[in-house]
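Appendix B.2, paired examples.
Example (i):
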Amino acid sequence: MRIGTMLALAVGIGLAGCASDGGLWGMEDDGLLCGLPPVGGRVHVEIRYADDGTPSAVPEKCTVAPGTRITWRGPEEAPTPFLLRFTEASPAGRGEPRELPSRETGDRQRVVIIAGEVEGEYKYGIEANGIMVDPAIIIDR
């Protein structure tokens, strides 16, 4: 095996190891942005704020498989608390809270749930700075 091939293989293995523990490119424990293939069953949704304080979810709709760990996370530079309010039911499952306040963990505000087994679209609101917007989570096998 040539040295260049061995080096490329070693780098690839190293990057795969980082990706499997969520340590690649600052992903922390939150996985990749929803819409990309999840790392270890973890995805995140970015909460962003317009200049007037209006929150938004990126992506606005997120499709995940049952059992996926979903993290909503606010920006590092603006630790504004936010509240997730699910309209009819929680995607975490029956009996789980429908209102979830963010908590400061590490360097930002976060809400974390594990997607339940019931497929469907779960509409929710994000409330921050006295303003509410309404994206959705979709659970689909």
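Example (ii):
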Amino acid sequence: MPEENEARLRELNEQYLRAYMTADVSWYERHLTDDFLCRRADGTVLDKRQFLNKTAEGPDVTEYRLERVRVRIGGDIAAIDGTGSFTMANGTKGTSRYTDVYRRIDGEWKAVSAEIARTTHARQAAS
């Protein structure tokens, strides 16, 4: 059973990222708890409704590549820590780190919170 839970959480993580890149609000409506909170890289905190509205605007990056993911499970609570690289529309590249917390409710994993940190890399000067 622990392996099944980890596999399911990894699948949800991939779906979460895909939903972000495709502005799939309906996926988030189904997979976030009603009391979901997201702390964005700029420090703002969004509740579920605000998060869904922001998602509908589309991603602020043109490319995202997941580089590392770690799943930790303790009973009916799980944390997913991930690191990825991104490219913004203006060409700025960076690294993001996130932690998503999930809670198992009636046998189904739902995201309770998300916290995102970003760093951007200095652009190379043209030679």
